[in-house]
Design brief:
Layout: H1 5-27, H2 34-41, H3 45-52, H4 55-77, H5 83-97, H6 101-115, H7 117-141, H8 150-170, H9 174-192
Helix pairs in contact: 1-2, 1-3, 1-4, 1-6, 3-4, 4-5, 4-6, 4-7, 6-7, 6-8, 7-8, 8-9
């Protein structure tokens, strides 16, 4: 069967994102020239400009793809039947993800610098905020957390978690930084838990 123009366009975009993602993860945004990306992807420079505008546009597409994957992975770790255990597992999964070299390089180091802090936070919110709202809503509905404005709580939790991620990304010893932020965040989240009333 002949491939449609849409099929070819989708394939070109996928090839560009895959090539750029591997190169950015290995060497960082600044050290990867556009010519190398298009050569690795097997497409023309014009194709990159047509689909993404420029190298920065392609980088944003890489960050967005990575964020979607990470959000799905954290979501899979959350067990709605056990909100407390699910939140703990989701937090641990997220902090483990922050130790990965590609995540530290692309998402935590280059993304804020290349895209700007506001754009980076926007991408984070588009992917992670909905998951947090759902998770915290479940925790409130099951009585695990005291009723409170869910959206505000989710935004504050996200801000704290993203700051923790940034600390891990910048740390000379990311494993030690991960342990520190897990202790603090774990304690903070535990303080949100509603203690059962004495019978």
């Amino acid at each position: 069967m002949r491939r449609t123009q849409q099929d070819r366009s989708n394939s070109t975009r996928a090839d560009l994102v895959a090539a750029a993602r591997a190169l950015f993860a290995a060497r960082g945004y600044q050290d990867v020239p556009t010519d190398e990306i298009v050569r690795t992807a097997g497409v023309t420079r014009g194709a990159l400009y047509h689909h993404y505008g420029d190298k920065q546009g392609l980088f944003r597409a890489v960050v967005e793809e990575l964020e979607r994957e990470l959000t799905a992975e954290v979501s899979a770790a959350f067990d709605a039947s056990d909100p407390l255990g699910g939140m703990t597992a989701a937090l641990n999964t997220f902090l483990d993800i922050c130790l990965r070299d590609d995540v530290r390089r692309i998402t935590l180091t280059d993304a804020p610098a290349v895209l700007g802090w506001a754009a980076w936070r926007e991408i984070e919110s588009e992917n992670g905020l909905g998951l947090l709202v759902d998770t915290l809503t479940t925790a409130i509905e099951t009585g695990l957390i005291k009723p409170q404005p869910v959206r505000a709580l989710a935004q504050l939790v996200q801000a704290a978690v993203m700051e923790a991620a940034h600390m891990i990304g910048e740390a000379e010893d990311p494993v030690a930084a991960r342990a520190d932020v897990q202790e603090v965040l774990g304690g903070w989240l535990a303080s949100l838990i509603q203690q059962p009333k004495p019978s």
